[in-house]
Specification:
Two copies of one chain form a homodimer. By secondary structure, chain A is mainly α. The first copy, chain A, has a domain of 136 residues: Tetracycline Repressor, domain 2 (Orthogonal Bundle). Helix content of chain A is 68%, strand content 0%. The first copy, chain A, is built from ten helices and no strands. The longest helix of chain A has 28 residues. At the A-B interface, helix 6, helix 7, helix 9 and helix 10 of A face helix 6, helix 7, helix 9 and helix 10 of B. Chain A binds a DNA duplex (19 and 19 nucleotides) through helix 2 and helix 3.
Chain lengths: 211, 211
DNA sequence: ACCTGAACACCGTTCAAGT
DNA sequence: ACCTGAACACCGTTCAAGT
């Protein structure tokens, strides 16, 4: 007889399936066979598939955030938190599919605390915090969505190239900007661009504009 | 014999189902019975469910963007585009579920063109544009996700109140900021906050910081 | 060309029955 | 208390057969 079944072991097995074969492969039957048990047994430890996905998500986010060092400079800390989340979702694109919320308090607190440390006044705090947090979550989730919906085997650069080619063929009378920006798309660095956006928002909050 | 089946009629029926009963109710069987045909007939006009959802999404976004008036002031135009997308996704929360991309060129072009009109220099254009567009899409999509995953019948304010209550109970040693911000959560105005974030990013791009 | 609807290969979830 | 696995009520998609 093998190790007793537990929620932890189930989540662990789910993570293995999600990371190797994607969210489409996570079925209770696949899970049961990997754990050498019946599919019904899983329901003794986990309410349903939503709870399973939420637990897997929390695990990934929690691990990513625990790896983020405190750091002295609040700006650097904000960048580190943002990049930690970005990389975690990038490495596990299935994370972006369901709503995050629960595991996200660590991110929320981290960003909020640093904004206070940067001296953002009380009246502006809520708006600044929410703008930053929304940007970080939004970009990370969309990045993951792009990775998820890219046909397997397709390189990221190729996929961007295809989009850029489509943009370049748009009617230049109606879409002059798309035509112009298409050239910059394939070569661009996601992470660098993500950080540039954060700096932009921080500049809006603290001064020293970009343009 | 009724009107001939067509992709347009199928998309129209799909929209009706999505808007009244949510994305869970959109099945080929439900669609077929509403159109008084066999489920296989739909496949003659539409490749699969993904194409159907993409077409429905494009329709909603296209209509929302066509309602946005040009306007003289680029800042106002940016706000109008952003709010148009925000409201469209808010009214049809199922839109945020699949990747947008295709219908999004209108938004991309609209924002990009106005940034040029505002005099953003070439070297900063790509980063500024992508930060703004990412923020707008990110917030709109997450807002829709929250609406989608809120138990039906629950009021938005109640749902936010529940989250705030959870935040208020966190350990104040570890989560001082969450405790502080919890009070602001239930009463806040999504749209106003969304606009505040856009102003913040524009301030970062153009100067005149908030703090 | 276009439509019909049964059939196929799946799902998540439940539940009587076992230990 | 915990596990088993067949059974139920669904899906998306296909396809022989019709018009």
């Amino acid at each position: 007889m093998t190790t007793k079944l537990s929620k932890d072991r189930i989540v662990e097995a789910a993570l293995a399936i999600l990371d190797t074969d994607g969210s489409g492969a996570l079925t209770f039957r696949a899970l049961a066979s990997r754990l050498a048990t019946g599919s019904g047994a899983i329901y003794w430890h986990v309410a349903d598939k939503n709870e399973l996905l939420a637990a897997a998500t929390d695990y990934v986010i929690g691990r990513a955030m625990s790896g983020v060092v405190g750091g002295a400079d609040p700006r650097e800390a904000i960048r580190a938190i943002a990049l930690g989340l970005f990389d975690a979702i990038d490495a596990h694109p299935w994370v972006g599919a369901e709503p995050l919320q629960s595991g996200m308090v660590l991110v929320f607190e981290g960003i909020g605390g640093r904004l206070q440390a940067l001296g953002v006044p009380d009246r502006a705090l809520f708006d600044c915090w929410s703008a930053l947090v929304n940007y970080i979550l939004g970009v990370a989730v969309q990045n993951a969505a792009n990775a998820r919906h890219r046909p397997q085997g397709t390189e990221r650069t190729d996929a961007l190239g295809a989009i850029a080619a489509r943009w370049a063929q748009l009617d230049p009378e109606i879409y002059p900007f798309m035509r112009r920006i298409a050239a910059d798309l394939p070569g661009h660095d996601d992470r660098a661009q993500f950080l540039a956006g954060i700096d932009l928002i921080l500049a809006g909050i603290l001064g020293s504009p970009v343009a």
